[in-house]
Amino acid sequence: MRHVDSFEIQPPTNQSPNGVPRSAWARAGRRVSRWHRPYTLVLLLLDFGAVALVSWIAISLFDQAASGFAANKEDPSWFNTPAWFYTVAYLLLPLGWLVILWGNRAYDRRYLGLGPDEFKRVIRAAVTVAASVSFLAFAIKANLSRFTVGTALVGATVLILLVRFLARLALHVIRKQAGQAAHRMVLVGTLPETLEVYTAVTRSPAAGLIPVAIHLTDGYAAARGIETPIPVYAGRDVLALVREVGGDTIAVCGSASAEPGELRRLAWQLEGSGVDLVVAPQLTDIAGPRVHIRPIEGLPLLHVEEPTLSGPALLLKNLMDRVAAGVGLVLLIPLFIAIAVAIRLSDPGPVFFRQPRVGHEGRTFRVWKFRTMYVDAEERLAGLVDQNETDGMLFKIKQDPRVFPVGRFLRASSLDELPQLINVLWGEMSLVGPRPLPADDGDFLGDVRRRLLVRPGMTGLWQVSGRSDLSWDEAVRLDLYYVDNWSLTYDLSILWRTVGVVLARKGAY
């Protein structure tokens, strides 16, 4: 097998070697992946129905105000009749919403199904609709009921966001359970780069990215003796390979995207083929909001912003943590009493377990947890060290004999961690952050030390991504990713995902 230094792609028969189609009529013009078309049609119908429904509700609740807007006895023209009003409310306004949503690219397949961009574009469209309605009302001097119009606009925005959220949940279920409505990717690059991208995209089935093949840019020899999760190819025409494996997307990974002119020529050759091209640079642990493309004389530079570790957003996060912890502790008092009784009946001893942990900037604090082990657990630890089922600074056994039955339930349901709200209230922890590690596990050296730049959390990426099922290296990687890319929106997303993980009892033991 010959060695290749870059990916190869042969021009289709309807294109010249420089990528210019020989005939505009010969281009395919249709994308291989078409799952987004019926999904977009469903969104169009849902958005239209949402606006029409909210208009009907607003008119039903405030019919008198709406009728006053619709009827003007001094001007008997059709534009001032109830028929015109209802035409606007139930047809033109919903159509106007669809046009403005489309103009804000709220139906763009790149933003559908994952990430906050879809919802941001809906909100941006809502602002545009509000401004447009206000301008038209002022221009034609319409006798609008502000309360009715305001209710319709706000209600339509909320309902559109809700139906899109529900549609996204349905899409995620289809992707996870049926493997449909997804992109089939061919990864192009060196073996370590492609495997890194493979791990990243398969970690989230809801993203709808399914790697089906790897095309090595450094030849078969690089993969000799290494077991890979998907077939590996080398020295092949990439577009022919995509068609052979039933793919619809080419992902150029890491250094392969830096080959002089190769990426541009690949993009040329894919024109009209219906195959998508994505680039996965070596920035897999840096989130999108920190990465900005700034073209300089035709050269697209990726500018990576510094992580936000201070400022108003952090102050707001701390305030939200304290308020939520205070309210939560008050509401959970009955549950705390019930758990305390169950613990005392299971094993005489203290209700709470307090252990030194390393917190923000290396400061040590004592974490609050409900006790889940027998009182002699520390003495029995030495005889169980050789049964440790994890690595790094953690000690975990799925069937730990030191855990009493009620404690096993508390761990599986994560109820044992609720007293950490006390640490959050005192400012020692946050609702979301890296996991707090025991203080007696030695020094935090190298990359691990960076975790201490933020307060440890009751939940975090480690918990919603597998918890105890993760390796130490993977847990550290997720914690560092959170430190470098945290935001209030990201915190809310993790809290939401935590609910599902806790209910599923995934990785808790």
TrEMBL record:
Record's keyword annotation contains Transmembrane helix: yes
Enzyme Commission (EC) number: 2.7.8.-
Keyword hit for Transmembrane: yes
Designated name of the protein: Sugar transferase
Transmembrane segments: 39-62, 82-102, 122-140, 146-167, 323-345
Top-level taxonomy: Bacteria, Bacillati, Actinomycetota, Actinomycetes, Micromonosporales
Membrane topology designation: Multi-pass membrane protein
Compartments where found: Membrane
Domain (Bacterial sugar transferase) ranges: 317-503
